[in-house]
Write a structure and sequence with these properties.
Order of helices and strands: EEEEEEEEHE
CATH architecture: Sandwich
Mean pLDDT: 86
Oligomer: single chain
Number of strands: 9
CATH topology: Immunoglobulin-like
Length: about 130
């Protein structure tokens, strides 16, 4: 996926281009009973109100889904998702985040503007072989 993908959203007042962040760094730390899937925010920006869904496509054909929510994901920060130890062929990540934090003191209108103007989509995937 390209790092410069954009999606258009139209509201009654204006059109907003939604940026898509891709090409995150990821790895699997394999254990005997569980694995840690590690994904790093190496996109050069802090992310806020992060909502992600990870689909773990196993080699046996099953595809369990894991949802994660983080208030903040700093530049360079690694997040860990612990999953059962099995062979995974592909992992897909989809979701959204904000480029600016939401402040509790903001009015509902200001909060809506922050969401509308600062939402980014997050999409990525990784293929893994059993020995990775």
């Amino acid at each position: 996926m390209g790092a410069g993908c954009k999606e258009r959203r139209t509201t009654t007042s204006k059109t907003v281009e939604t940026k898509t962040l891709t090409a995150f760094k990821a790895s699997i730390d394999r254990g005997n009973f569980s694995h840690d899937f590690l994904v790093t925010n190496d996109r050069g920006v802090d992310l806020y109100d992060v909502k992600l869904t990870f689909m773990f496509h196993r080699e046996d054909g099953e595809s369990p889904e894991f949802k994660r929510f983080w208030a903040e994901w700093k530049q360079g920060e690694e997040k860990k998702i612990n999953v059962p130890a099995t062979a995974y062929a592909k992992i897909v990540m989809n979701g959204s985040a904000l480029l600016k934090p939401m402040l509790a003191t903001m009015s509902q209108i200001d909060q809506a503007l922050v969401v509308m103007e600062n939402t980014v989509l997050i999409k990525d995937f990784w293929n893994f072989s059993p020995d990775q």
